[in-house]
Design a protein that fits this description.
The structure holds two protein chains of two kinds.
Chain A: E1 2-9, E2 13-22, E3 25-35, H1 41-55, E4 65-70, E5 80-81, H2 84-95, E6 99-105, E7 110-115, E8 121-126, H3 135-145, H4 152-157, H5 170-182, H6 187-208, E9 213-219, H7 226-238, E10 242-246, H8 254-278
Chain B: H1 4-16, H2 21-28, E1 35-38, H3 45-50, E2 54-57, H4 81-90, E3 99-103, H5 107-119, E4 124-128, H6 136-158, H7 164-190, H8 197-206, H9 212-228, E5 237-242, H10 251-259, E6 262-266, H11 286-297, H12 314-323, E7 327-333, H13 337-353, E8 357-362, H14 370-386
Helix pairs in contact in B: 1-8, 4-5, 6-11, 7-9, 10-14
Classes of the chains: A alpha/beta, B alpha/beta.
């Protein structure tokens, strides 16, 4: 029996997942997501980690492998760190075992990842440093429009005449949105326009890494945005790609899940190697 | 006993001090003291020391200096270390240096000799030619003559005769220094979590700036402190770094590699500290001893000639095996001819041996570490999850 923790420090939230692995059986014990806002992400992570452990009547020493991902590489109490692509790929396969590619759309950037059925990364492409394809951008726009974050997706689905965002630059796109508001364009049409713009960029990334078929699992903070998922499916259809873009209620935990599961794998493997050496 | 943190803090201060205060203070401590600077990758520091002078490693300006005037001296397709070195001279940061040696690593460094002769006509600036033929009868004779010429020049510069006895004392001190650095590298290969790559780097770099006697004490103390330090072991992969022998990487780059999940267990930073793989003979003719050690016990690097094609890159395969590394990261300065021209042949050798590798370039002032972290991080993951030991 191996108990592992996965900690994913993103740009806007800290996600934790606690797992217990016994042979081939995997049990997801607990999960937690904390918004960073103005807090120190590392202090918040430590506090969150201890809270999750306490809730499960565990002490730190009971964790066989504490795996970090995202920006968590400098955490002193972690056993090992895995890169975000590796963990999101593994997490996506855990959430849907038919997954053959992943779209990780977080607060600061988006990434298309091609994987094999084991979760091994075969290729990837990221958005450039421009923030217009990111959750942070969408969050800013929602704030201008006076829309709560969890309303964005539903509002976007109600759009009847989406207004195209003419730029791929976040600064100019924000100017576009201000103009749209002054022209009386509805919030749902503005949000759908932004979703279309983001989805087009992500679909192009997917195409550039030669994803042609199968299930595309979305991960990261924007994976629960139903409006974006709808726009992504429209965009891949427009690009004539035979893929289906899916999400999962726990998609935001994909990185933490992947870290915890890879941690369990590494713990077992390291024990085997040590036993071989001893023999 | 000093802690590793205290020792490294001192090394970091030395590293960050581009006014070379420690060397200035050493020079000012007694009248008629002289300082001789040298560039990567190897010079016989024993000769400088035996003349009563301080050998001072000038390894560029790193990421702490803005190159303004230095850019006017070189084309845009030339690496950064000669530009920042010129900048150090033109901004008077090296105005206390009495001599400079430019080893024959590449044409750029060779041409720097002439530029420094123009910039500082009052200073001794010498192109130090090392043999590329390792036959005692050819390269050996040439090299003995080259060393004798240096001995003569240093006697003139310092005003001190370099006796055989003085040179033997210097050889003993530098042998001890190489022995300690070797011990440090062995410790790091065995328990890399006890000797982070940045600490090993700063400790080695301090040896470029301090008198060898002081550096020996420093390294000895660090090894003692590191052995007993309780540092957590992380599940990182072990890698060998190759290509950083001349223009040094920014410290953040080394840190990023380790944070990305790679323990650096061997490298080619500051090869001068480990150039001789065996101690230089402490008896007999000391010039002959230095020449023989160079011809027969030099470390292998891209900047040394390998006459047997089949042996090309075998030193790197050997370094991987010896240090228990699981892969190689090629990291070379942009526009570095010796490192980049050799890389395809080294990669061939690694391919043949089934050793995984990645490659990227940097400049001493590179500031954007995200792409490097990404590359190194995914490389570490691929080794841990899909490699031989996965």
């Amino acid at each position: 029996m191996v108990t592992t923790a996965g900690i994913d420090i993103g740009a806007s939230a800290v996600k934790l997942a606690l797992f217990r692995t016994t042979g081939d059986k995997t049990e997801w014990l607990d999960k937690s997501c904390y918004r960073i806002r103005t807090q120190d992400p590392f202090a918040l992570t430590e506090q969150a980690y201890d809270e999750v452990l306490k809730r499960n009547h565990l002490e730190r020493k009971a964790i066989d492998y504490c795996a970090t991902t995202g920006e968590g590489e400098s955490i002193a109490y972690s056993t090992g760190h895995f890169y975000s692509m590796t963990t999101h790929a593994r997490g996506a396969v855990y959430l849907n075992d038919q997954t053959l590619s992943v779209m990780d759309i977080g607060a600061l950037h988006g990434r298309a990842i091609k994987i094999d059925p084991r979760g091994k990364v075969l290729g990837y492409k990221m958005t450039s440093q421009c923030a217009s394809g990111s959750g942070q951008f969408l969050e800013n726009i929602a704030r201008y429009l006076g829309v709560a974050q969890d309303e964005i997706g539903e509002l976007s689905l109600k759009s009847d005449d989406p207004e195209a965002v003419s730029s791929i630059c976040a600064v100019l796109a924000e100017t576009d949105v201000i103009n749209m508001v002054s022209r009386g364009i509805s919030a749902s049409n503005i949000l759908k326009g932004i979703h279309i713009s983001m989805a087009d960029r992500m679909a192009k990334l997917l195409k550039s890494i030669k994803v042609k078929e199968g299930i595309v699992m979305t991960t990261g903070g924007l994976a629960t945005d139903v409006g974006l998922i709808a726009a992504l499916n429209e965009a891949v259809t427009a690009q004539k790609m035979d893929v289906k873009v899916l999400s999962h209620p726990d998609s935001i935990y994909a990185g933490a899940i992947g870290a915890a599961l890879w941690g369990a794998y590494r713990h077992t493997r390291l024990e085997e190697l040590a036993a071989n050496r001893a023999a | 006993m000093a802690t590793t943190d205290q020792i490294i803090q001192r090394c970091q201060s030395l590293f960050e001090d581009l006014h070379f205060t420690a060397a200035r203070e050493w020079k000012a401590a007694e009248p008629d003291r002289k300082v001789v600077g040298f560039m990567p990758i190897y010079v016989p520091r024993e000769l400088i020391h035996a003349a009563g002078m301080l050998p001072l490693g000038i390894f560029g300006g790193g990421d702490q200096i803005e190159v303004i005037q230095g850019d006017a001296y070189y084309q845009s397709y030339i690496c950064r270390i000669p530009r920042s070195t010129i900048e150090l001279f033109l901004t008077k940061r090296l105005d206390f240096v009495d001599g400079m040696l430019f080893p024959s690593i590449c044409d750029v460094i060779r041409n720097l000799t002439g530029m420094l002769q123009l910039i500082r006509p009052d200073m001794y600036a010498h192109y130090y030619d090392m043999p590329q033929n390792y036959d005692d009868r050819v390269g050996g004779e040439f090299y003995v003559n080259e060393l004798q010429e240096l001995r003569h020049d240093f006697e003139n510069l310092s005003g001190n005769e370099i006796t055989d006895a003085a040179l033997r004392v210097s050889i003993v001190l530098f042998n001890r220094n190489r022995e300690l650095i070797k011990e440090l590298y062995i410790l790091r290969a065995a328990e890399p979590w006890k000797v982070p790559a940045t600490e090993a780097y700063l400790l080695s770099r301090a040896g470029m700036l301090l008198p060898v006697e002081d550096h020996n004490v420093l390294v000895e103390s660090y090894i003692k402190a590191a052995r007993s330090a309780d540092r957590p072991r992380r599940d990182n992969c072990k890698i060998v770094l190759s290509g950083m022998f001349c223009e040094q990487p920014p410290l953040n780059l080394i840190k990023s590699l380790e944070l990305a999940g790679c323990y650096v267990v061997d490298d080619d930073f500051m090869l001068i500290n480990r150039w001789m793989q065996e101690p230089v003979s402490e008896t007999g003719d000391p010039i002959e001893a230095l020449a023989r050690a160079f011809l027969h016990h030099s470390t292998k690097t891209s900047a040394t000639y390998e006459p047997i094609e089949a042996d090309k890159g075998q030193y790197l395969v050997e370094a991987v095996r010896k240090s228990g590394a699981e892969g190689v990261i090629f990291a070379a300065p942009s526009f570095c001819d010796p490192a980049l021209l050799e890389r395809p042949m080294l990669q061939d050798a690694l391919n043949a041996a089934g050793i995984p590798y990645i490659a990227f370039k940097y400049a001493e002032n590179s500031g954007q570490m995200q792409p490097i972290r990404e590359q190194a991080g995914t490389f570490a993951d691929s080794i841990k999850l899909w490699g031989e030991n996965a």
